[in-house]
Amino acid sequence: MDVALAKTLDKPLPKPTSEGYVTARLLEAFVEARLALRYLEEGLVRNAAGKASQAWKALMAALLRLELDKLKSLARTEEERRWLETTAVPRLPTGRMKTLSQMLEQIGHPDISLWTDKALNLHDYQYHGPDPDMALSKYRSSEEAAYDVVKLVQGVIRYAESLKPRVKWSQELEKALEELKTALR
User: Fold this and answer.
1) From CA 166, how far away is CA 177, in angstroms rounded?
2) Mind telling me which Pfam families this protein's record contains (predicted)?
């Protein structure tokens, strides 16, 4: 992975109201997904699970920003609309990812809650590791988790590509996406 590309994770994000926010979050998603694959290659499945779930979370943040107006129309109160704007988009709390993905499905993003469930399962695996009793993690083995890391990276790619017509797609984004696809092969 290009060192300059990896350094993008250390840059402050643009304000969620700026045009560059969505692009920055997509780039973050690609870099995190690429790191997930690298960790898998090195046998670090728990770290890979964490990076894959972070990649999905970054992609969701970009999608939430793109769909903010539609999401606000689903909110029942002014307080919920404000929360979407001030908390959901810039911070995307992990504990609310399921609800937010269900809202995204309601406005036309099919199956996103299924992918979000996979990301949340990998998030749990990152902290608890394999769990034969499946009390703390949905994965009995690292092989099961590794399989879902790859699947979630594929999901990141698929969703990001579907956003191309709606995003200012830069050469930097295209390069990161191509690196990710190459690593996936």
Assistant:
1) 16
2) PaREP1
